[in-house]
Amino acid sequence: MSSLWVLNESTDKFELVQEIPTDGAEAAGMFEGPDGQAYLIVANYGDRSAKRYLSKSTLWRQVSFNTEGQLHFEQVAEVESFGATAVEHFVWRGRHYVALSNEGDVPNRLHQSSVIYMLNVKQNYAGWDDDEEIDI
Length: 136
Hints:
Blueprint: E1 2-8, E2 13-20, E3 25-32, E4 38-44, E5 54-65, E6 71-82, E7 84-92, E8 95-102, E9 115-122, E10 125-135
Antiparallel strand pairs: 1-2, 3-4, 4-5, 5-6, 7-8, 8-9, 9-10
């Protein structure tokens, strides 16, 4: 599990917003999607000490604020990753993309390619288009 915190500017203290399930989270990023919603993307490494690199990196969408006005996210998509270490959102020619860096299984030189996914956001759906996957 990973904890999401927000700074309460009136008390100058961080407050717990939500705990989300992760699997060796290495990196995360927030961005505004094409629908104007806030998104959180998490790059999950797996378990380095057990040499387990296969995991699922996840995409979360802000769905509401709680009674204290804090964010609440729900998972809307996941993608297979192999020792994911970094993630970056970018917009190119009006389309939103997510780049996922996979360290992979270094000793065996397996699954070491990074991938770019086009973000597909429709009403009641957000995820990655598998047919728009670009290996780099």
